[in-house]
């Protein structure tokens, strides 16, 4: 299980990701939100993005499946973080203006992504936005690297995932990895809007 990996390597993971400059990605997400909007950071990892959203005066709920990452995220943000998976997390329906799922849904097996999106967007207001990112690939859909399983994504696969959901693609773009020595890795980024 990926959460076992993150429990064992939580400190190392935080050190490698917490200080990455995410400003370009935030600019695709936050302009869709009003002042004080309510955000769900789904799979928050180190708490890096939760902290940023709090500093921008958004109201933020966050969760992660790794107990060790939850503890570190609470330390980094001085904010309560829930210990949940995508499917165990619960909230009020239509509670959030935005859902941020940065490099987290990529750990969900491809055949479970539809159900996971369906579960998450129950909590998203109509007209609300969701950002998510996956490793970009056109060949292998699922891979395993260093004891972690990944679901890779491309435009065709993503349309299959969302085709029966009340979601429309607002923006879709490919970026290079922002981590040092990872410039050869590409990322699939998408902002979706929930429609009636």
From TrEMBL:
Pfam families the UniProt entry points to: Methyltransf_23
Biological process according to GO: methylation
UniProt superkingdom: Bacteria
InterPro entries, A to Z: SAM-dependent_MTases_sf (IPR029063)
This protein's UniProt keywords: Methyltransferase, Transferase
Tagged with keyword Transcription regulation: no
Gene3D superfamilies per record: Vaccinia Virus protein VP39
MF GO annotations: methyltransferase activity
PANTHER family hit by this protein: TRANS-ACONITATE 2-METHYLTRANSFERASE, TRANS-ACONITATE 2-METHYLTRANSFERASE-RELATED
Name this protein carries in UniProt: Class I SAM-dependent methyltransferase
Organism: Aliivibrio finisterrensis
């Amino acid at each position: 299980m990926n959460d076992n990996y993150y429990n064992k390597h939580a400190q190392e993971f935080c050190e490698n990701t917490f200080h990455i400059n995410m400003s370009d990605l935030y600019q695709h997400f936050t302009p869709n939100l009003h002042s004080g909007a309510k955000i769900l950071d789904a799979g928050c990892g180190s708490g890096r993005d939760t902290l940023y959203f709090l500093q921008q005066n958004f109201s933020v709920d966050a969760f992660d499946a790794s107990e060790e990452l939850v503890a570190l995220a609470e330390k980094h943000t001085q904010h309560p973080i829930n210990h949940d998976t995508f499917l165990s997390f619960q909230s009020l329906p239509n509670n959030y203006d935005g859902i941020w799922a940065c490099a987290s849904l990529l750990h969900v097996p491809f055949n479970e992504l539809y159900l996971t999106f369906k579960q998450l967007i129950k909590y998203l207001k109509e007209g609300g936005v969701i950002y998510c990112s996956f490793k970009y690939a056109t060949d292998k859909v699922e891979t395993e690297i260093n004891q972690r399983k990944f679901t890779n994504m491309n435009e065709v696969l993503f349309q299959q995932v969302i085709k029966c959901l009340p979601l429309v693609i607002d923006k879709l773009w490919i970026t290079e990895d922002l981590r040092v020595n990872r410039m050869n890795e590409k990322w699939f980024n998408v902002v979706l809007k929930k429609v009636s």
